Predict the 3D structure of the following.
Amino acid sequence: MYCTACGTQLRDTDRFCFNCGKATTEAAARWRYGSPKRLVRPMDQKVIGGVCAGFAQYLDVDVVLMRILWLCFAIFTGIGFIVYLICWIVMPRQQPLPGPSYAAPVSDASPAVNQAPPAPAAPTSSS
């Protein structure tokens, strides 16, 4: 197999030309006709319900812009709040990708939570 851009000979398993970086026809077809976009509510980017974040992700726009547009639509038309609630109910949730947990590690050196503070030392008198 040869690169269609520069003519470099490629292996059958190559997805990109190592000389010019152009995608092979198989890789380009896989990207062009890849998995379709889905309108989902991403749980890692939500503020209220994730509806604006889902529409922003689907339309490839900034989420802040989408929130401003949605708020203007809701205020000026009056039905934006109802449409938001309907979208919140209808749109499926996107589960966050598995990753490292962000819980603070517990060490043996940390004091116990239910432990009483130490009693003050008794005063010593010197005569």
Notes: Residues 41-94 form one domain. The radius of gyration is 29 Å. The chain has a mean pLDDT of 74.
